[in-house]
Amino acid sequence: MFYRFIRVISKILIFFKFRLDIIGLEHIPSDGPVIVAANHTSNYDPIILFSLFERKIHFLAKHELFRTRLSNWIFQNLHAIPVDRDSGIAIRPVRYSLKVIHRGEIFGIFPEGQRCRNGEMIQPKKGIAFLGLKAGAPILPIALIGVKKGWRQSVKVIIGPLIFSANLGMSEYSVLSQSIMDRIRELGQFIPLFHLYVNTLYCPAIFPLQYNDKRCN
Prior knowledge:
alpha/beta, single chain
């Protein structure tokens, strides 16, 4: 009940805060386990993703958010998973994350492990590759573009095709994580073409991702 209520509030906030364009909704699976992996530039990123999915999504969240009794209750009921980024001990959150995925639910993670502002590109953590291979669940890459301060900013949410763990290969986790992060960043390359069609119907033969279900003949 609380989760649904907060989700409605989040949708209202996002509606008034941003001018949101979502591309690639057809790539979201309707059931089964999935690991959502997105770039992270703003505190609004998890709220956008939270409001995007009809199914419950479990996010890793820094343990500082759970310090008070009230905040702990709130984030626990939002199905967030606390992780201490400084301790280097991630056994408990990893185990819980795997349980979530094995139950056939949605698990959300920001591979970079922190917010990256002003186009900063850092090496992603190994966790995304480890979870993908260990759980055997598909990874849903999402690029969040234009999430900035201010009101009515234009934001693009670009959802790419699923990445299946069987296709990741057997490289080191750091290499696989970088490959997944590269996929996410590559989704942003559609933006210049998107601007050419933002006020018109687009042709899937040229621009294959969905935009507001508009298609040309």
